[in-house]
Amino acid sequence: MKDFRSDIQKYLETEIQVLKSLDLSELNDAVGAILAARDRGAAIYTMGNGGSSATASHMVCDLSKGIYENIGGKKFLCECLSDNVPTITAIANDLSYDDIFSFQLKDKLCKGDLVIAISGSGNSKNIIKAVEFAKSVGAVVVGITGYSGGKLRELCDYSMHAAIDDMQISEDVHMIFDHMLMRIISDSESK
Question: Does the pTM exceed 0.85?
Answer without folding.
Answer: yes
